């Protein structure tokens, strides 16, 4: 009985839709919340198994539109690529296979009929509805859980964190402005029984995100996650810091400074070292460090990631299969993913991060399989990174700069850059907007290829200018709130949700 229920839970999550009319119908074998709840009373690990299924959706292939079998459809890391390309920091260097062409040409963000406009929508709503399903099984997302009912608190905490994570990315991708605005951007669903909902305002969406994450931080305060693929208190604090920074009021930035300081001071995550940042070679050209490549979830600076194994069943259709020259990949076969030439030129020659890129501007010395054999890894077992502590140091600097605590902002930035540059004395001369601009630039450089530049662009209300190596719109500039920077609500939602 237990085994068959796990199978039902896994298949229901990984292959079903989120259950609204605008997505695919639920499979008839999906267990009800009552069934899960009753099973959970006999064996609490059933509910934990369901939460693990939500995390599995983050790296599963064809998790948005199974029938489409798109090679850009593989969970969170697929949309990291979308965002890096929209922000223009990641360049599609050639167009032999067609994946991402509608993203880099901005067709996906200006034409609501494009499949690429629907994929993030469907993926994140699938996560939301799965999180709601888990919470409904233990009484719903509004239930007050006693402090001594730790198992239920851990389920609710993780489910709320994942719901907030999904709404946060939806708000970024489908909402133009942050803050407490009245722009109507997304339908909100907080349980699995609600019918189609109308669009809620930016303020309402962010209020839910922040409330969910505050509960998650509280409920997961003593949670021992036993694996970085799960959300714990510090990951929830990191997501909350991102959400508050996106909303961007002065009180929000003060909280970002406090949250990120807690993560940096108490989380137990040291900064990514020089050796972990870039491949290093001896005079004969042999690799001398074994801890680089951003390919191992055991890296101490990683706060959130997943240990991919053969059982994960990933190959060409994966982030590594799109980006890494040393994986059997599109990147090596003819669709290279390279750094924007304008951004690359802003990296000083004495910055070790400049060595992450080869002469063709491929990230061959940042992201790579341990064997470093071109096209060598056919079955992907190199891990996925979702969040690392270096992000929190940069967010801490950004928060302190925004609340006028410039000495603290410089200290945080210096802490990171001392591991990247020979000389960081120039930082002491920065203030005001120049300091904010430097933090934004360093965020783009440090986190290149990790899906975070788009978020920073919107937080900073920046304008991006495409470098000379872009296939389309080279030299053209786009503001953060231009039509090209935000997806439209997809056609399938408009057609099937009469409330919009």
TrEMBL record:
It is found in: Cell outer membrane. InterPro entries: SusD-like_N, SusD_RagB_dom, TPR-like_helical_dom_sf. Residues 106-240 form the SusD-like N-terminal domain. Keywords: Cell outer membrane, Membrane, Signal. Its main location: membrane. It comes from the Bacteria. Residues 361-500 form the RagB/SusD domain. SUPFAM superfamilies: TPR-like. Belongs to the SusD family. This is RagB/SusD family nutrient uptake outer membrane protein.
